[in-house]
Description:
Elements: H1 4-17, H2 29-39, H3 46-59, E1 64-69, E2 77-83, H4 84-90, H5 95-108, E3 112-116, H6 122-130, E4 135-140, H7 143-155, E5 161-165, H8 168-179, E6 184-187, H9 193-205, E7 212-216, H10 222-233, E8 239-242, E9 246-250, E10 259-262
Parallel strand pairs: 3-4, 3-6, 4-5, 6-7, 8-10
Antiparallel strand pairs: 1-2, 7-9, 8-9
This protein binds S-adenosylmethionine.
Amino acid sequence: MYNHFKLSQKFLYYYLTASNGKGHGVHSPFVFDFINNVLLDKKEYDCYHSVEERRKFLLSNKELIAVEDFGAGSSLTPSNSRRVNAIARSSVKSKKYGQLLFRMIQYYQPAVLLELGTSLGITSAYLSLGNPSAKLFTCEGAGSVAAIAQKNFDSMRLNNIAIIVGDFSKTLPSLLSNLKQIDFAFVDGNHRKASTIDYFQQLLDHSKSTSIFVLDDIHWSSEMEEAWSYIQHHPAVTLTIDLFFIGIVFVNPDYKVKQHFKIRF
Ligand SMILES: C[S@@+](CC[C@H](N)C(=O)[O-])C[C@H]1O[C@@H](n2cnc3c(N)ncnc32)[C@H](O)[C@@H]1O
């Protein structure tokens, strides 16, 4: 993982070299449409309030739970205790990105959604609410954390989510073999190069032309930057959008020319 100084430098470089996020000079009708109808959609959707209320509740929960630490890699280290509010502060995606993912689901209406890394289920809630008639499968290794996520889903009455507990290396292949196709995936756990590429390849094998994959923390470490570069250059990938803290991947062969965009967000 890069230290704070290095990450800030990288962010500054991204900020100065990314297109301004208003769609000017973006020579892709699809990306222009994405910027104007998804990225820049400033409407306050009703569900934002209920998810953020739940986040607030978790941020005030000082309960200590035993958590299996999967770290960046998947080698299970002995259980350690963490407070729920500390997990809510450090592991959960901010509302800016959760709400962007909600808008992506709402706009593109994918039907089969997958999240790798549930944590407390805050981003899962945004994904689920984007298309209540979709089915969201969310995978989490730490059973105690998954149990809290399930309580959150119950309290928000989100009935379209299934949590799969276990190490991704075991749960992902069996889940994918049952699902056949994934329309949208958010990969937010285990930030190792080899694992990220492996998850991407598995998702690709179960994709269709309109599938969308979102990868978290693509500039978090040199390993993640290498994985992101590998994915960008993969022959099946036709379009990528780098928003610094997340990367978006499209595999639609209708986009004849491979294009990579870096957009300020
Ligand atoms: C960054 S958090 C996910 C945050 C969540 N997507 C959100 O925004 O609310 C990553 C989660 O992935 C889980 N995780 C990491 N590596 C894993 C693995 N190899 N197998 C299963 N779970 C794993 C961790 O336990 C952690 O809860």
